[in-house]
Amino acid sequence: MDGYDKYAHEPFAVTVDLAVLTLRDGALHVLLVERGQEPYAGHRALPGGFLQPDESAETAARRELAEETGLSDVSGLHLEQLRTYSEPGRDPRMRVVSVAFAALLPHAPEVHGGGDAARADWVPYGTAGPLAFDHDRILTDAHDRVGAKLEYTCLATAFCPPEFTLGELQRVYETVWGTELDRPNFRRKVLATPGFVEPVPGTARLTGGRGKPAALYRAGTATTLHPPLLRPPREGRPT
Amino acid sequence: MDGYDKYAHEPFAVTVDLAVLTLRDGALHVLLVERGQEPYAGHRALPGGFLQPDESAETAARRELAEETGLSDVSGLHLEQLRTYSEPGRDPRMRVVSVAFAALLPHAPEVHGGGDAARADWVPYGTAGPLAFDHDRILTDAHDRVGAKLEYTCLATAFCPPEFTLGELQRVYETVWGTELDRPNFRRKVLATPGFVEPVPGTARLTGGRGKPAALYRAGTATTLHPPLLRPPREGRPT
DNA sequence: TCAAAAGTGTTACGAATACACCCATGC
DNA sequence: GCATGGGTGTATTCGTAACACTTTTGA
């Protein structure tokens, strides 16, 4: 609008923040860093950082994840824009507009601090106390979004390793939603949706050390679920 | 993370872009401006502009809409973040990160150019030729998102005036999806979903000049649809 | 009387639910 | 054997699809 003067407008800092979710020991975990600097030094926060001049928000998200937590070249990392948080005052230092991402991981590799993060840890979802900035809000939004997308997309496979059992897939839904599902019905539903999963022939794996070995499946080619796999309507939730 | 120097990082310009959709004469229309300045002077583009230092993206979106098209104090304007476009090079002048919004309007008030927009017009969706910047992509994303959200939210009422008939609501679905729906079934489905619509007692309105006057409804309090109102699975669409 | 739009009824099919039941493995 | 987890079968219930039919208006 005002032509070409790069400094004609108040400069905005643009950052990315990542809500990295995974399943560990049957519980939803989130990747948090401990901030090494003010503001909020010593507090926990979502990993993230400033965009560099030549990279998109998606690129910056992967870079920051690698720098701050050691997660790089992660196979199967699902990265997806959540929304952008731009309220004035969300960072006390200056005007910061942050593009938030939700990231899903099949396994939970060990992480370590780096860059501006004093340390990095997997923390069970919901036990992290107040986070820095508006990161509690971002984390809640990420959880809501992931829970909703499980219903009508194949997103659940992003929590699973390349080959997985239907029991593992079901535990993804149960963990994220916090509900129990009927195993036979879940199984039929998933197998009846073309492209959701495809069998890996002739393979099986013991899961809990006990029980019948389960057949293995791969993620299929579909991305959306028609019809959707609706979560059971809990009372108290708005219809 | 380099502390407090506002100019330590390359300055990013932050803008908002709006895909404003409405129904006119039974067809989906989008609000486009004609750019008055380079780059893309004379081309059509989505309305939008730069964030100011003291406002959020949502605030900026409403302000730019008023400035560039004369739409201000619009009752029933539904505004919703779409995603943020941050690829380097999407604006030839400098690094611009744009927060895109989808906006839905019940009626289509007359609009006029203003600010940096030479003119503003309602244009039938799909007839606008190539838009400036990556605005074709943004517009497509907005249409996809709205179409998808009709399935599992009450978003359709955002296209309707405060009081509307079920026929009008059905036409929203049919226009956005480009399909025909069975009227009796649509009717039952909508009325069976608590909180979707509520009747306005003792009122009726003629719709097409002919036919039986239709009962009027208001938007209800629900925001999500359980179970969803799925669009008919067209062949060719991925399941 | 006709066309157009709203509204009701009915039947058939398919999906989701809630189970009971069988299979394979480790201990 | 028995506990544990995987896998199959089935009856019932509910939602949807398809379509016939009635009602109320303007022309």
Automatic annotation (TrEMBL), chains A, B:
Superkingdom, taxonomy of origin: Bacteria
Keyword Iron: no
Nudix hydrolase domain residues: 11-153
UniProt key word Hydrolase: yes
Pfam families: NUDIX (PF00293), WHD_NrtR (PF21906)
Gene3D superfamilies per the UniProt record, alphabetical: Nucleoside Triphosphate Pyrophosphohydrolase, Winged helix-like DNA-binding domain superfamily/Winged helix DNA-binding domain
InterPro entries in the record: NUDIX_hydrolase-like_dom_sf, NUDIX_hydrolase_CS, NUDIX_hydrolase_dom, WH-like_DNA-bd_sf, WH_DNA-bd_sf, WHD_NrtR
Keywords recorded for this protein, A-Z: Hydrolase
Identification of the protein by name: NUDIX domain-containing protein
Native organism: Streptomyces olindensis
